[in-house]
Prior knowledge:
By secondary structure, this protein is of the alpha/beta class. The chain has helices spanning about 25-30, 40-50, 85-105, 115-120, 155-170, and strands at about 15-20, 70-75, 110, 130, 140-145.
Amino acid sequence: MNxxxxxxxxxxxxxxxxxxxxxPSLQSGETGHHYANPRNNFYRILYRAGLxxxxxxxxxxxxxxxxxxxxxxxxxxxxxxxxxxxxxEYAEGRKILHAKLLEYRPKVACFVGKGVYTQFSQKxxxxxxxxxxxxxxxxxxxxxxxxxxxxxxxxxxxxxIYRRLAEHIAEHGS
Length: 174
């Protein structure tokens, strides 16, 4: 087991969006910031989709709380990759995430990757965007592509999916 400390969630009540990842990368574990791997496109995607007014750095992740955006993961332990996460960690992470969502009740739970959503929801598949049958009915569940640099989907397609989130927030208020 990796003894690297868990990175802190950025949670608050009344969030517009809670971004939920699989688990932190080793670089996130080393720096203590979400999406810290320089090959991860998370902050570039948010900016290009119109979710942030400027390009943020991973070291500023806590500042996104002021925009109404929070961060958590289904598994808190940093690893080299998702293959290093076992079923027991997912089962425990599901329970913890469900409790966080019930307590904080963000307007939108954005799952950064289909696999994150299918692990949480226990559904076999999901389409991009808002889910028709959310696990927690009062919370909109949105499935977005992973922001990992390993994703093969063209950046424009990824940004277009995240842009739907920006449009939802603009339409329904933050």
